[in-house]
Amino acid sequence: MTMGTGGPVASFSVWDYVVFVGTVLGAAGIGLFQAIRGRKNNSSGEFLLGGRQMTAVPVAMSLTASFMSGITVIGTPAEAYRFGADYWIFAISYAIMSIITAEIFVPLFYRLGITSTYEYLEMRFNKLIRVIGTSMYITQTALYTGMVIYAPALALNQITGMNLWGVLVATGVVCILYCTLGGLKAVIWTDVFQMVIMLAGFVAVIARGAVIQGGLGKIWDDCYQGGRLSAFDFDPDPLKRHTFWTIVVGGSVMWVSIYSINQSQVQRYISCKTLTQAKLSLYGNIIGLWLTVSLAVFSGLTMYSIYKDCDPFTNGDVGAVDQLLPYLVMDILAAYPGVPGLFVSAAYSGTLSTVSSSINALVAVTVEDFVRPVWKNLTEKQVSWINMGLSIFFGFLCIGMAAIASLMGSILQAALSIFGMISGPLLGLYVLGMFWRTANSTGGLTGLIVGLVITLWVGFGAQIYPPLADKTNPLPISVAGCNRTQDLNYTTLAPWTGAVTLTPLNLISRALADSWYSLSYLYFCLLGSLVTVIVGLVVSAITGGCKQENLRLDLFVRRRDLFCAGCGKDSEALDSEINEKAGSELKNGSNNAGFKDSQFNIVDKDVEKVTKM
Question: Which PROSITE patterns does this UniProt record tie to the protein (predicted)?
């Protein structure tokens, strides 16, 4: 069979299985090594936060790897193949996200010394909001992690013939093993190993594709001729799926919600030994994200160059778009024993890193938000055993969610989008608490609920009434060069037609489908955040605002947090000074304007002044 002309492809060889199994065992070995190395220190802080002794480079690579899941490894190239290189604009979003997270959120969480991100919600608002926030996180993470396990397993199963349920269970068991035995250090160092494997998989696809097509220039020219390089669409229409503005504005807010308040990410950078290292880990993360998205997008462009005259999906060679890259790998790399195994390892390395970080984060929030408040006299040894037990529990829960995902069919995409829909209102709640001192718990809770309802409404509506092609902008594909076309797979969305009886209800549904439900999915998070903040401020004002005298100054963003390169122990000393002075003023019944100011403000470096913005 000539490459790029359709038809069946080769299956896994013995050497492919050897490479794949070797990679998985290598990941498990890292967990065992960290368990043996750290067996003398079994404290909860060591297990959940790596003893707060991690440095910037491994944490930066771990931050990159943890959200570059198997879905990313398989899905991003397919996105570039189908819609073009506009996905690369996310590189700008990654930079904006890293700066905002490093300069606003990291100093706040780091100086508070928290283990669970949601501890902040109780400090700033109340226990109920903390419990709700934690419950939302556990629900979304367990569901998302199940999808992360299931989606690449499904695609690779249909291409390689590997047993689906065997792979699912094996993936979960390996993650449980090194999460249970090694804790966060095992997760971080395993992520470093897995990121290298992921990048190597992309490089192998690009290099072999360049050889087949006659160079990178030929790939670039094919993509230009096929309209895949027209990335910068400046149309401000919020209903279009991907434009420069939806990616830079909406995408930045979405990634801020993932990196700034998601326990899986926060737990990594607060494990650093100093605040400077924590910030550097996020700036180093930019490089990792840029490299990953660039290689992933160019892998998709390479795939288009090879299949420009014979689309495997339309030709019926694959049953889903997410199977395109695995199909390409078996098509062009099967002649090199072990290389397809490397790619499968790359996809599963992404899955392993996401699942392991999710399990460790779920354990952290459960212990800090549910176990410790109930059983306050637990010894460190007892907490360590609870940590390991919860790792096992959540590991099998995520495997169970993957099993449920297999029954969802078209709900799979809906379940994945829930991740963004929940993060938006939560981000709005944190922003409300960090910047507006007048916001109270009633306003915060009301804003969170309203924001969540709005995002779920538009999100689920978009699944029931998906936007049409004029909003999603799929690029043309061809089957003119295929060897066989008897099983063509023309799957299209049925447009609205006049055959439907135009009752008032149908008219409303049609209007919503053409406007509200067509909102770009990248704006879901921004929408949820804005609604939460606005409703929170209005309700807080109506209910009398916040009792200023009960607030700690270190719960707010401060001017000296921003671009503070020399932070560390000095910052900790200043934090202690702030709390001591605040406590003294409260005790003496001070009428300091900092406790009475009703406007949006940022605490200045001078602990006795609050600067109005």
Answer: NA_SOLUT_SYMP_3
Find the Cα–Cα–Cα–Cα dihedral 294, 298, 301, 303, rounded to 10°.
-130
> Is the pLDDT at 444 greater than 70, yes or no?
yes
- Tell me the backbone φ, ψ of residue 439, rounded to 5 degrees: -70, 130
Picking from 483, 472, 164, the residue whose alpha carbon sits closest to that of residue 316 is: 483
Burial class (CB in 10 A: 0-12, 13-18, 19+), 501: exposed
Mean pLDDT value across residues 248-277: 84
332's CB contacts (< 8 A; 6+ apart) are 3, 205, 208, 209, 212, 306
Residue 249 clears pLDDT 90, i.e. is over it: yes
Kindly state the tokens that stand for 90: 């996310």
Instruction: Answer for the pair 322, 148: CB distance below 8 angstroms, yes or no.
Output: no
CA distances from 30 to 182, 187, 192, 269, 503 (A): 8, 9, 11, 20, 62
Spatial distance between the Cα atoms of 432 and 602, rounded to a whole number of angstroms: 13
| Phi-psi region at 50: left, alpha or beta (left = phi > 0; alpha = psi -120 to 50) | left
Check: CB of residue 186 under 8 Å from CB of residue 179.
yes
Cα(514)–Cα(519) distance, rounded to whole angstroms? Answer: 9
The CB density around residue 499, as the number of other CB atoms within 10 Å, is 5
- Whether the model clears a pTM of 0.85, i.e. scores above it, the answer is no
Describe the crossing of helices 70-83 and 339-366 by its angle, rounded to 10 degrees.
120
Instruction: Return d(Cα 492, Cα 533) in angstroms, integer.
Output: 39
Pairing state between β 610-612 and 601-603: antiparallel
Averaged pLDDT for residues 6-26: 79
**Residue range 517-530: mean pLDDT, rounded:** 89
Most confident of 136-140, 142-146, 506-510: 136-140
Residue 487's pLDDT band (boundaries 50, 70, 90)?
A: low
User: Would you say residue 452 has pLDDT above 90?
Assistant: yes
Of 504 and 70, more confident: 70
Q: What is the CA radius of gyration of the chain?
A: 25
Q: Which residue type sits at 37? A: R
Please give the Cα distance from 150 to 22 (Å, whole number): 21
Judge contact between 434 and 108, C-beta under 8 A.
Answer: yes
CA–CA separation, 172 vs 264, rounded Å?
Answer: 17
Contact yes or no for 414/460 (Cβ under 8 A): yes
What is the per-residue pLDDT for 14?
86
Which tokens go with 129?
A: 């909001």
- CA nearest 561: which of 548, 551, 582, 575? 575
| Six token digits for residue 9 | 């492809």
Token readout for 32 is 């065992």
What was the pLDDT predicted at 220? 93
Tens digits of residue pLDDT in 302-329:
999 999 888 888 888 887 787 888 888 8
